[in-house]
Amino acid sequence: MLDSVDGAEELAVIVEPSPRPGGMRRLRCSVVTVSLLFDLDGTLIDSVYQHVLAWRDALDAEGMELAAWVIHRKIGMSGGLAARSLVRESGRPIDAALAERLRQGHAAAFTRYDHAVRPLPGAVELLRYLEERGVPWAIATSGLMETARAGLASLGVDPERHVVITRDLVARAKPDPDLFVAAARELGADPLEAVVVGDSVWDLLAAQRGRFIGVGLLSGGYGRAELVGAGAYRVYDDPGDLLAHLDEVGARSSD
């Protein structure tokens, strides 16, 4: 039997048989701490379309035209992987130097749009709620710290005080699970005791590959069916909707 208690903890009650016939059964209880691992762009901050525009600027600078919807489908990947994927979509031969120029061009262009980045509805309240109740949480983003810094600041997240894993800290980013694995390790959480919250199919694919439970948010522009198909066991509108249903992911308070 599993039941949530005291915010982030679930009480597992294991029934053990009696060592003698007709004897009383013993109950052995253990407490499992549920940790939440959040993606950043489209999950906690409203920045997906700023990233789309930044990628389009970088592509335009290289003489490649791609529709915004095509670019949107790559948001959530690591910058290097997204760049190579976008080059492939353009029909140009994949060239490592070109992909690196695109990645750098995207990072530079994003600084022109990051002033418009703001927290998604309920994001600040969600993180505050978790912190006040001692629920372990971390942020794991495919972006570099240089592009994530403004969004983190808008949430009141301090990388010196909170667990924040960015692309520069791992060997591979989404759809590889390295970011979430590193975040769980920093929290001291076993993958089987952590929930990944993301807005893209790349988040959920990475979650599955890392043996994490995945929860999807619609706030990044992917559809419910796409997120469920990628492995989400629950889908919510945005961080505020998740906050209202935290009990469904095993992180509810005892009140």
Please state roughly what percent of the residues sit in beta strands, choosing from under 5%, 5-15%, 15-25%, 25-35%, 35-45% or over 45%. 15-25%
Quickly count the helices.
10
Question: For the report, how would you describe the main beta sheet?
Answer: 6 strands, parallel
State the separation between the terminal residues, measured CA to CA: 20 Å
Number of strands: 9
Considering the protein shown, what is the CATH homologous superfamily of the largest domain?
HAD superfamily/HAD-like
Average pLDDT reading: 86
CATH top level label of the largest domain? Alpha Beta
Give the helices and strands, then pairings.
Blueprint: E1 2-5, E2 9-16, E3 26-33, E4 35-38, H1 48-61, H2 68-72, H3 79-90, H4 96-110, H5 123-132, E5 137-140, H6 145-155, E6 164-165, H7 178-187, E7 194-198, H8 201-209, E8 213-217, H9 224-229, E9 232-236, H10 239-244
Parallel strand pairs: 4-5, 4-7, 5-6, 7-8, 8-9
Antiparallel strand pairs: 1-2, 2-3
